[in-house]
Amino acid sequence: MKPSIFLAACVVLCLSTGAASAIDVAPAGAAACSGCHPVSRAIETPFTPLVGRNPTEIVTAIQEFRSGQRPGTVMDRIAKGFTDDEIKTIAAWYAAQKD
Predict the structure, then answer these.
(1) Which end of the chain has the least Cβ crowding within 10 Å, N or C?
(2) Cα–Cα distance, 63 to 76 (Å, whole number)
(3) Which domains does the chain have, with CATH numbers?
(4) pLDDT in tens, 27-74
């Protein structure tokens, strides 16, 4: 194998491994969600489950709570504490959970 091809393969492998491990770690802010939306489907809760849910749906819901478009008792206040990037990161993390 040519050194340049080997190096490119190693870079791709490292990047993909890094991305996979990063999604396994809860992002900052996810703890605020997991109090009501557990990371396990085995835990019953009256709140909408987020595990494995489409990340676009999660982002839309949080942005609607934040803007006041969707009424909430607590979510509207919690959502105001997150930036768009944080919301997307949390949504992607919840979507990737398969428990």
Answers:
(1) N
(2) 9
(3) 28-96 (1.10.760.10)
(4) 988 888 988 998 888 898 999 999 999 999 999 999 999 999 999 889
Chain position carrying tokens 């194998």: 1
Please check whether residue 31 is in contact with residue 92, taking contact to mean a CB–CB distance below 8 angstroms. Answer: no
DSSP symbol at 37: S
Look-up of token digits 């819901």: 61
Instruction: Answer yes or no: are the C-beta atoms of 98 and 52 closer than 8 Å.
Output: yes
Distance CA 48, CA 67 (A): 19
Query: Which residues are within 8 A (CB) of 6 and not within 5 positions of it... i.e. 6 or more apart?
Result: none
